[in-house]
Amino acid sequence: MLSALKFQRTSRHFSCPRLLHKSAVEVQERPAPEETITSSFGRFIHLVHPGHLVHRSKRMILDSIGVGLLGSSSHVFELALQHCQQMYAPDYISSVFGRRHTRLSPCLAAFVNGVAVHSMDFDDTWHPATHPSGAVLPALLAIAQMLPGNAKPSGMDLLLAFNVGIEIQGRLMRFSNEAQNIPNRFHPPTVVGPLGSAAACSRLLSLDRSQCSKALAIAASLAGAPMANAATQSKPLHIGNAARLGLEAALLASRGLEASTLILDSTPGCAGFSAFYNDYLPQALPSPVEQDPRFLLEDQDIAFKRFPAHLGMHWVADAACSARELLVNNVGGFHPSMIQNILLRIPLSKYINRPFPESEHQARHSFQFNACTALLDGEVSVQSFSPAFLDRPELLSLLSRVQVEHPQDNPANFNKMYAEVLVTLTTGDVLKGRCDTFYGHWRKPLSRDSLLKKFRANAGAVLPGERVEAIIDAVENIEDMQDCSHLTMHLE
């Protein structure tokens, strides 16, 4: 069976404007489609221009590359890579994070690099809750290498397409109040991620307005995965599939595949995207030509994680570190035997309430594990989730002393939640640590130095120092890059 890219090259019906943009052939514009919410999204993707860029996205790109490079050393990434190499015909075009002599077809490279970005739950988080970058960036990097030399997108092209993919995800999630909270049905990157990827890829491929709308509709048919696979090795596949399926949707749309023209509209009796949210109330996007758009990222910053775990863990870890600091300052030291019991006051969210995690992925989704690790070590780090740290007797002893409460004023919402850790000592004294906003949250964003420190640690675990610095320089000056595929040379 031919790979997606081989089919692209041989099909006479494939139509990608980016491949033709230097041709002298004039193509007559199609009649303007009927104005619907779905078509307004297609118009936005097609017409938005570089003047609308949001430069916070550079931080997101750099962080995603870093966590993806570190993730290329994970077991789940290795499984995904082996699957792609063994089960699909090779088409050696697109790079794989951290693997210098490995190439895959563009769609599979988008998949496996997406898995890498989310393999340790170290990637960025937005509000409403989703992981936006990993669903978009791997697909765009794969396209950059897929396109022929006379149609290579620039760094500015990639940056704009990335922002389009982020924006579409944010707009869709703001059509539902239900999406504001930590999810319990669908994992958000599997719902909005494929559409964000499809939008970004459609933009980078220079698809027309109708094709952009169809790409969203095709992606909607490929969207959705249940929360039950959180805290397992299957969860990283959610990001990989979002990147891959969005790219496939854009390629299918470019070939003329038909799809619903009302997929984002609210149509009684025939659910489109509203199938994912019970309170879905969509609104049309204004035309970028008629009204200068303000990107959501300009007002809603992103959260960057300091350690590889579910975002909620950062509240409880910081609260536990505060309680530990009080103990050390009052007593002059710390030992687990000083503690009689530990009370966590945290939001009610079943999939991150795991008293005795049995794997690294469960530990990344356990309030109890992260609180006890922070109490024991004074921090949570990449190494905290290694087998040697997971099975420590002193950690297991602390876990056995943990109780939880779910205060009514502590909702499962990344914009409103808090965490309290109350440590009762054997002396009867009670020490309390509380965190309302951790360092790295959008209300308290990482400094440039902190973000670069994280990136260097992550990328440096896989790449030599000179290539790490080359990536930083390339991303920070990406708008000056004539051929954005040159970025991928440093990622292998």
Automatic annotation (TrEMBL):
InterPro entries: MmgE/PrpD_sf, MmgE/PrpD_sf_1, MmgE/PrpD_sf_2, MmgE_PrpD, MmgE_PrpD_C, MmgE_PrpD_N. Gene3D superfamilies: 2-methylcitrate dehydratase PrpD. Residues 50-271 form the MmgE/PrpD N-terminal domain. Pfam families: MmgE_PrpD_C, MmgE_PrpD_N. Residues 307-479 form the MmgE/PrpD C-terminal domain. It comes from the Eukaryota. Belongs to the PrpD family. This is Cis-aconitate decarboxylase-like. It comes from Huso huso (Beluga).
